[in-house]
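Lab notebook, bench 4. The sequencing result for the construct came back, and we need a structural model before the next group meeting so we can plan mutations. Quick request posted to the team channel:

Model the 3D structure of this chain.
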Amino acid sequence: MIQPKNSPSAARPTAFSGLAIAGLLTCGVAALASPLRAQATANFVNWESAHVHPLEISPNRTRLFAVNTADARVEVFDLGPAVPTALPSIPVGLDPVSVRARTNDEIWVVNQLSDAISIVDVPSGRTLRTLATDDMPADVVFANSRAFVSCSQSNTVLVFNLADLTQAPTRISIVGESPRSLVVSPDGNRVYAAVFRSGNGSTVIGGVTPSVAGSFPPNAVSNLSGPHGGANPPPNGAGNVWVPPLSPGLATPPTVSLIVRKNASQQWLDDRGADWTNLVSGGQASSSGRTPGWDLPDNDIAVINTSSLTATYAKRLMTACMSLGVVPNTGEIALVGLESTNEIRFEPNLNGRFVRVK
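Done. Here's the predicted structure in token form:
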């Protein structure tokens, strides 16, 4: 979910409130004779972007870097023999969400609100260069003498030439909504990008009786050629029964839309297993407001070849792909996220099972 952000000034409350400043202007020089107290805010709400890779250890294992998103800084810690010791923090861009160490002395910080990368020299605590990115950058990794930056709002991965950062980056379009977390294969030949809002291969069939002719979407659930013969709402159990059973004496239920989900055989099925493919992507797709052959991508991980800069996809893994990891000795990829079963109807059937963490 994209969260709202306050302005930069809101991230740091000022020492004087507006009333205190107005009072100074009204009272004139006489007001300066009395000391002023800092006006602390009673409540401070801090809005910030979601972290993607907020912690990083230097290659020589002597430094820990942590993004301080609210304060637009990177905190640096010395990993000595005892407890970590705080070193001076480093100012970067607005809303840093990821930090990666390119070398022991150079870190790249992804600033989501600034739409920029800060390349920081750690010993001096200075930003050496700022790289502009597409909208809402999320993560950065290094492979094959290139830097790969995921940009979640523009659905792109930017590729910078590390030998010449003055060159414009190559832009790889990702077929999926909001690529964020990145990892590199042990051999450096592939970069993996997790598509955060990848979806779960489900779509809605319109079913509400339109009040105005031509309303969209058309009522396809009530279509007589559908798998339930136009029954609306259609039953969700075998043998045209309801699970759980309907309470006696209820009024006639209103017409409803229906969520269907694509299976591995490319069929669009409801929670009873009835096949709606003909009305979704088949010959009668126009009945649901679609065209024959209509489809919905379910790309969960973009696999980028670091030489050709082309992308293929791993599919049908989960609904929201949050974070990636790689096993160094095997190259296996671990994906963490959520799987939603939104096609299943009625609370007793969903109790404790609507979303699974995988």
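Confidence is low (pLDDT under 50) at residues 1-36.
Will bring this to the meeting.
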